[in-house]
Fold this protein.
Amino acid sequence: MDANMREAERWLRQGERDLVSARNSCRSGDFEWACIQAQQSAEKALKALLYARGFRRILTHSVSELIREAGVSEPSFLALKNEAKVLDSAYIMIPFAGQHRGEPDAV
């Protein structure tokens, strides 16, 4: 197995663990944390796909950007653009949500 496939498998395994964690967080009512974990799961699964397709280095954390890149070779991914934007906004906004309520930084 080549290095790219090993890297793809590593990202996919972690993405699957993040998805399990997101579901557990939802069940326990930790919705903000579930949003972050869901974004992480999607990001890692998409990175796994791109590594499997030969990408060498992926620097972005944006699910939207990863969807766009995956859509180059598989246009059906582009149908997920709106959902990707929701995940991106949750990932960007949630860690700072407490600041609006006068709570300490969540980071």
Notes: The CA atoms of residues 5 and 52 lie 5 Å apart.
